[in-house]
Each structure stands twice: as C-alpha cells, then as structure tokens.
Amino acid sequence: MADLPRPVLRWIQSLDLSYAVKNVKRDLCNGFLVAEMCSRYYPRLIDMHTYSNSQNLERKRDNWQQLLKVFAKIDLPMTIQECEGAWTADGEGVVNVVRRIYEGLTGKVLPDPPVSNLPDYNNPGNRATLLMKDRELHRIPDASTQLRTMEAALLEKQMLQQIEEEQTETLKSSSPSKTREYIIEKGPQRKVTRNADVIQQTGVEIAGVKLKTVTRNVAQLRATKEMSTMMSMQRSTHNQSMSESLHKSSIESPQNINKSIREEPQPRVTILPIISILNEIVSAKIEASRLSLADGLLKLFQPTKDSSLLYFENLSEFSDEFNNEIFDTMTERMSVVIDCISRDDNEFWTLMHLIFGGLKQLLVSHSSFMHLIQFLTVLGNKMISSQPEETQRMFIEYGLDRVAAILNTSPEKREFLCHLIYCYCVPDPQSRIQMIKQLKDRLENTKTFISALSRLITYETEYNEDITDIFLYYALIGLNMASPVMRACSCSIIATISKHNAQTGLNMCTNLAALSGDSWWEIRAQLLVCVANIITSMDEDAHLEFQKYDMLDQMNTRDGDLSRMSEGSKMNTTHNSAKSLNSSKPQKSGRIATSPEQANLRDNIESLMDVLIGVFNAEAPQNLLKIGLIYLAPVAHYNSHLLRHYVELLLGAPEEVRSNVLDSNPMQAPNEDLYVLGGNAMRYR
C-alpha cells in the first residue's frame, strides 16, 4: 500500500471491500477487488458473480476484459495495454490503474507522482534484485562493450578501403595489349592492334580477361569459407556413418540392406473441404431422387454453384423424408466430417453456418429438425471426447452467435439449442461457467438468458457451488419480474437446484410462499415440483424435524382434525375443501423452545407447508391437480398430514385425472411431456 497516495488509501479503506488490500501488486492484479470498487458506484453495471477471484492468468484476463467494457460505459478511458500491465502483476501498472479509477469514480484529481527513473540502490536488499528485474538493463551497454564495437567498426572500414585500393591498382596495371601478348607468347610474334577483341590462331579463340568485382568484405568472405568447410565435414561424417550403418546391417541382417538405404514414403491422406463432402452427399441424393423431386426444386441447383449451399439455403422446401436421408448419411460419415472441421477453423465455421441456417428455417414439428439436432449432438459429443478445449473454443467463436440468434427469436427451440450448447462444452464447472458467460454476452436481454438458464440447469448432474450461485442469482432476479413466464422459469431453476441440495430450496421457501397465490398455473405447477424435490432430497435431520412438525400439528389441532375426517367424504364441494385446508395449516402457538438452527429449519418447513397448501387443493385446475398427484406420490408418506391431504384430493379428483394418475408409475420417473402447447411451456411427467 506504500505506492498508493494517501487519499487513495483512505478511499479504498472506506469502501469496506470483501478482502483487505495489503499488497497492491498481489491483491488487485486479478481485477476482482477493482470490480467490487466499481460496483459501489455502478451496481447495475457490475455482476460480481461473473468475476473470479483467482490468480489464473486466463481468469485475470477475463476479469479485466469485463472491466474494460464497464469503463467504456462510464466514460472512463482505459486502454488494453494499461490493463495488461495490471493483470501481469506489474506493480507500477496496478498503481496507475487504481489512480485512474479513483479519479474517474470520485471526480477528484491526484497530483502527478514525482519522476524518478533510478531505483533505490541505498537499500542493500534491493541492489541485486532491482538490477536483475530491470527490464531496460540489457539495452544499456557498458564502456567495454562500446569500445569493442567502435574497434570492430574501425577495422571493418580499414579493410574496405584496402580492398578498394587493391581493385583500383589491378585495373590500372592490366591492359588488353599486355594481356594478349602474354597469352600468345609461345606462338609466332604478330602485331596486335588495340581494337582486336579476339585473336585467331590455329583454330583457338582466346577471349579477353574479365574482372569480377568483389562486393563482400573480408569478414564475409572468411565466414563463407568457414561455412563451406563445415558443410563438407558434415557430408563426410554423414557418409561415414551411413557406410558404417550399412556395414553393420549387412553383418547382422543382410535382408535389411535395401530397407536401411531407402525407406518407403508414407502415403499422404487427402482431406477434402467440408463443402466438397457435403456436395458429394447432396448430389448423390439428388441424382437418386431426380424422378421424385419437383421440377421447381431441380431448377434450384445450378452447375456453377455448390449443391450443398443451395440445398441448405432452401432446406425448408424439401420433404422430411428427403432431409432425413441426407442427415443420416452425414451422420454415417461423421468421422470424415470431424477430420475435416477439426483441422481448420474455416471449415468449422462453414459447417456451423450451413447447419444453423437450416435449423432457423425448420419448424420444431418437422422430423427433419430433430434429425439435424441429433447430427449436431453426435458431432459435439465425439469432438468433445477427442479435443475438448479446442472444440469448446471453436464453438464459442463460430457457433454460439448463431445459437444466440435463434434463442432470441424462437422460444420453442430453446430447449433443444440449450442441449446443444452443453454438447460442445467441456463437462467441468469452470468450462460451463465460461460458456454461460459467453452466452449471456450474446443474448439480447435478461429474460431470454433466464429462460435459457432454466433449460441449461436440467443438464447439471452434480451440485457445484459456483455454478449454483450463478443460477440462483438470476432466479432471484426472475422472481421479481412482472412477466409470469420469467417467474415460472425462476421457479423451475430453484426446483432443479432443490433436487441436488434441499437446504438451498428450504432457504427459498419464504420467497416461494409469496407465489402460491399467483394466477399463472405454470408458476404453481413449478412450486409443486419444487416442494416434491425438496422433500425427496432432505437429509435425515430434516425428515425428522418434518415428522416432529406434523406431530405438534396433531397435538394442537386434534379436535379440528376429527371434524375434518368426518367431512372427508364431502370433498366434492369447493367450499368445504378450502375450509379444510385453511384449518389444517400448522399453528405457531405452543411451540417447544429449540436451538436457533432447529427453529430456522422448522420455519422453513412451515413455509414449505404453506406453499403446498396454497397450491395443491381442490380448487386447482385439472392440469395442476394432475401434476401434484404425480409428483407428490413418492413423498406423501413422509408426513401424515400430507398423506391424508393427498388421499382426499385423489379421491375427489375427476375420473379422467384419477385413472391417468393410477395407471402411471411416478416412482420410476417416466418421460416428461408438454401439458400445454407454447414456446415457453415446460415439460412434466
């Protein structure tokens, strides 16, 4: 903290951060506390759940990249180079960034720090370490290095001058006449003119001397000579080793002489582009179905264009049978497709562009839509099993934008697309958190994101605190929205979390009890699913407290229970059913004093019973009554009051609902289906 000015120090201490800043370089380099500082001034722009308090370089870079977007929104200019100095743990860079943030958030101006380029060498402990850490040290030559450099430059200049003088003297001393007289010295003497270029004598042509200009200095010539010598030595060594190996192989195994001399070249595997692979599949299918296809569809395909591009652009014009056969052929050639798109990002982009363009055209009711989803599912699972990190990277860069575009415009396709998102995601918590963050950045609004989360959480098979915090955070936001669809999605998220962790669901019972009187039937249906999941996943202590709570209720309301038992045969009237439910609610008076933990657990269970009684009654719609009878059947025996209430509603239910419930077996969790049609409708047993 010594590098920060005193006003900045007091400001940081006044913010009451979650962690104390003791070392600026270490505590602020990952950007987590910096984000918390900004959240004090702009809470709506900062979601602390999206920031990771980790020293991993990728996590730090992600935090600062999010902060750069926030800085741009609050008119705080900050460059990526400044933030890079912060996340690389550069002490000076972190201090400069914090100073900028302080001035931008508080509106105060700090005086410029004193300029000092010299390190503090007076401290004995810093002399060697500062010299070793000085990044500019290698750029400062010492006196001996400078002297050697000057001597080498002077020597090179003298050599060049000497070479030029020698070349000049050679040109002056050599003349054509003297050269030619020397060459024909052995023959009869003849007079040679200066204009003669070639001398004819006994059929021999003698040309003039041509001088070659030397353009390299002595050092370069010496280096060339040494290089040629070294290469000749290497060739001789190689030839010697080859002869020794041949001699050895001839002694040990004469049959392997030819094999050691020349290895057979390995055949190269030719990988076709994805367009060529798809063109082959589509063209073969068109040729086989030429008689059955309409003339208008045949005219779509032009020889000058790729048949696969034309096919996917007009995918909805073809029949489901035609499309399904093409998609099945693509699935059969899955290994060829994976070899192609896993080697080049451009090939992966091309495939995603064509496939998701087709998904956007097809309706969910078409069987070809499900065949195409099945192809993408198999593709993602196989690529994740072989190249997990690379597959997720390519999908985020080239596929997630197209998924988000369909999620924004087609609510009925969200369930299938969310399943695809996890097919191309590495199955570990941090990778899924990264995928969720990337998806949020690409969606248009929070409503679409919460709806997508309600589908994504169904594929979480294990409880993880980090992922659960993200889902629960947005579920609480959705519970307070005006849209009933968002409240139903939020209840669905809490219901799925309760399946893995009952304590989280119990803590949310107070919030859920306020929704028990909601007019939207699917909100109440999700409340029933949530209650069933909480009771199912309760631990032994919670179940015991659940039973104690019921016993206290029987002690306090024994007389009322006897009267309600006599009225059980009159469940056909709505008035008597509502009166029975209201009188059977647990009473808060007469409780035995317990520990705070047990009291809190009892209050949560009481809120759980309030949700159940307020939703699951004879006045409920037929679909809601059916859902309650199916989901509560496995847990009704945990509480005698719940069991009695369940039997009363089952006997008073319409014959169609009762026969449907008794014919199925909810204990084995049959396949879920839609009770009502709609893009935002959810599936139930």
Question: What is the helical fraction, as a range of percent?
Answer: 55-70%
Q: For the largest sheet, list the strands in their spatial order.
A: 1-2
Q: Strand fraction band? A: under 5%
What is the 3D form? flat
Annotation, overall tally of beta strands = 4
| Largest sheet report | 2 strands, antiparallel
Commentary on this structure:
The chain is mostly helical and 685 residues long. 64% of the residues lie in helices and 1% in strands. The protein is built from 35 helices and 4 strands. The protein has helices spanning 6-14, 24-27, 32-41, 57-73, 80-87, 91-106, 127-133, 143-173, 176-183, 218-252, 257-261, 274-288, 295-300, 307-313, 320-332, 334-341, 345-361, 367-386, 388-398, 400-409, 414-423, 429-442, 446-456, 465-479, 484-500, 502-507, 509-513, 521-537, 540-556, 558-566, 574-583, 596-615, 622-631, 640-652, 655-663; strands at residues 199-201, 204-206, 673-674, 683-684. Strands 1-2 form a two-stranded antiparallel sheet. It has a two-stranded antiparallel sheet with strand order 3-4. Strand 1 and strand 2 form a beta hairpin. Helix 21 (414-423) packs across helix 23 (446-456) and helix 23 (446-456) runs parallel beside helix 25. The longest helix has 35 residues, at 218-252. The protein is flat. It starts with 5 loop residues before the first helix and ends with a strand.
